[in-house]
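Worked Example 4.2. Read the sequence first, then its structure tokens.
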Amino acid sequence: MTPCRKVASIAALSLPMISIAYFALDLYLASRAPTLEQWQAAAEVVRLEWREGDTVVFAPQWAQEGAPFFAGLNPVTGEAVDWYELQKRGRVWSVGFRGAIPEGIFGLSEVERLDLEKVTVRLYEPEPTRPKLLYDFRVRLEDARVTRVHKDRREDCEVWRDEAWHCGTPHPWQNVGRRRMDAGGTIRDVIWAHPLDKGEPLEVRWPAVLFGKRLVVHYGYGQRAVDSENKVEPVTFKVRVGEETVIVATLDVLDNVWHEEVIDTSGRAGQRGEVVFTVTAPDHRDRYFGFTADSWE
């Protein structure tokens, strides 16, 4: 038998074995998957102890076939879980295959567990030693001062409408507001800050932030910016605390990371002061951009 025929024979014999292996894997996964009745039972467990502000995640995260049973219970169904934001909010329910633990969890401690037939329900609460959140910039967006810095003048945006600051007549995307945005693999609650055109800075300033030991800033493009054909220019993001510039970041047009920066503000702890965020881009087409910031005790 020639080498070529030998390879062909081995390949022909392998195909049935591969098919059998995949069939066996499908049967195994099907045997592990909860039934609709079991998902319903898990949802009832959560509903009985539900509190306003609770969130439901799935373990593993791709095991979301039970999500419809948790309607109204704030289920997270994105590709990833934003554990930073969840540990700010409060309690988190993990629901999934029996024994599964959520990936990447931090800042939360397991306080309750219930093993049903094929589903495990876990309840997590913020760790008692977690520092206190002193100032959530997104929540306090109405305290901000928004300014468009033109070459010859500064234009203050003084119209607050629909959870956003507008300059004059409200605009659907040329504003600074509270939005939900697909960024870094999941839907996030962000401060929407679409840059202006021709490199003119968009400035968002909080004049009286209460400082603790650290300032945590997150920022990045929305997925639509990364996917857009108009990948013409990057966005530059700057953060100033008092008179000190603490972040200068220019994001590549293909950057799909939700970035985190932790700034040491222990020297200002207990004081109030100004924090300014500036967003610029040479071309504003499809530059969907957002950020968040929090001051921690």
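Now turn to a second chain, presented in exactly the same format:
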Amino acid sequence: MARAGPCLSACVRPSRLISLAAALTLAGAAALAEAPRRVVSINLCTDLLAMLIAEPGQLVSVSKLAADPRSSAMAGAARAYPANRGGAEEIVALRPDLVLAGRFSDPATISMLRRLGIKVEQFEITRRIDEIPAQIRQAGQLLGREERAEALVAEFQARRAALAPPPGVRPLAAIFHPNGYSQGTGTLSDDILAHAGFDNLAARLGRTGGGLIAIEDLVMADPDLLILARPYPATSRAEEILGHPALRATAAARQPAYTDPDWTCGAPQVLDAVARLAERRRALAGE
């Protein structure tokens, strides 16, 4: 009787090998394309995007800030999710197959997670409103929820177009936070003001990014709208400048506007901030 030797590829017809290879390739591609089942977000702005886009049960944790109404535009919704503090050990314990982070999330945490083979995707800081659709689409692609993301983008773009300010003279707005901190060109705050039909005092003074405005410059500019930060319950020396008599004597200080969590992230809620400012612009114009 002939001895039965090992039978490998030589015993299989070439056409059968090609079909098998193709099947394995397709299976591998399907595995790669499969939507993540356990997503953890460790950044406030990715929290918002994930809560808006993820399917039920897909998002298993958001950052602690997400449930803070002083910081988050979705604080109520965030309370439905377990909160994390962004530490590597607690994130690993959640067994995620995808972690969403910001560009400036803790690099030690990001490095540790990646060394452990956990996929981490970092989102850039949004500096312009027209960057938000790309952020939404990025989140949708990562979560395997492209259709949901496109619906959000369409809704966002339609509302943005409806809020476009009319041409003409633009009133002057001044963001003035504790210590005289403001936001100039190249910031999301500056673009929010522009979309609402205002000029930005910090930009007019040549500020790029975040920086300080002297109270003398603000008083001399006599802005049409003063935009403050809401005070915290406890007082601080940084907030003392907001009660300066010269500031309180300006006409704009009588009815200031306030920044809120809608100003913080490149998410659809930013248009809520634009809408409120647009109402103030119309009131200033007597509309």
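Notes for the reader: The radius of gyration is 26 Å. Confidence is low (pLDDT under 50) at residues 1-12, 14-32.
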